[in-house]
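User: Is it possible to get a 3D structure for a protein together with its bound compound? The compound here is nicotinamide-adenine-dinucleotide. I've pasted both below.
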Amino acid sequence: MTKTAAITGSASGIGLAATQRLLAEGWTVYGLDRAQQTARGDRFKPISCDVSDAANVTAAFAAIGGPLNALICCAGVLRTGLMEDMSIEDFDLLLNINTRGTFLCAQKALPLLRAGVTPDNPSRVILLSSLAALRPKVVSGAYAASKAAVTQLTRVMAAEWAPSGVLVNALAPGTVDTPMVRAVSDPSASKGYRPSGVSPVGRIAQPDDVVDVMMFLLSDGARYLAGTTIPVDGGTGAAFIPAGSNM
Ligand SMILES: NC(=O)c1ccc[n+]([C@@H]2O[C@H](COP(=O)([O-])OP(=O)(O)OC[C@H]3O[C@@H](n4cnc5c(N)ncnc54)[C@H](O)[C@@H]3O)[C@@H](O)[C@H]2O)c1
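Assistant: Yes, that's possible. Here is the predicted structure of the complex:
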């Protein structure tokens, strides 16, 4: 039987790659984004939605209406700056979209996810945290806080929702080659912020590196995983590498 997912942030980067992969694997995908959507196909259902707007999110999941097997929350923004300079508007934007928007989508999707549960197939929620939640960086403290909150939401939602068959986990990517990162790759345009960059694996991630781990979380093999935040960072956060190290 065709499986159905809702994916936020489906217009770009990791969310677009996840949308394209699930469509290719035969899923029906509801794509929620505030931007113009480019994914195509009979099984792709775009929904215009600002995830930080409660009325918008409620209307979007009401429009979906039927059972969901998965929710993947990729909608997010990055704003940079030293804590002493960070504007209140940027701080609020990060918390409103990355944290509040993720919470709103998960809460409004929950009845549909519970409706999608079968005895041998729990529904899945995959939230996008970040390596920044586990190992914050200078010049992006508010972003790190917004993602640390996602990781804590993941743990508590997982404990509260697993008994009804809904498994909640998060992914914590390091640097992924997407428009979000390309927009801050010039330090002079990003208040001195520097992405983590090339990992010990020897490159930065492509969106499909993250989607491959999503596919595992959607698979039967992940039926006993709940409440985790899995780093997908090529080892970037594993150990501190002092400048000038011989490697
Ligand atoms: N790219 C990275 O290096 C990286 C690393 C760690 C975590 N992440 C996280 O992964 C997720 C996806 O990031 P990406 O790199 O693909 O970014 P991206 O900018 O390519 O895509 C983000 C998408 O979210 C949408 N979006 C933003 N605000 C929205 C809102 N209020 N309502 C609805 N849609 C909204 C955008 O329109 C866009 O389509 C984000 O949560 C990001 O924080 C990214």
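The two ends are 49 Å apart (CA to CA). The helical segments are 13-24, 54-64, 88-116, 131-134, 141-161, 179-182, 207-218.
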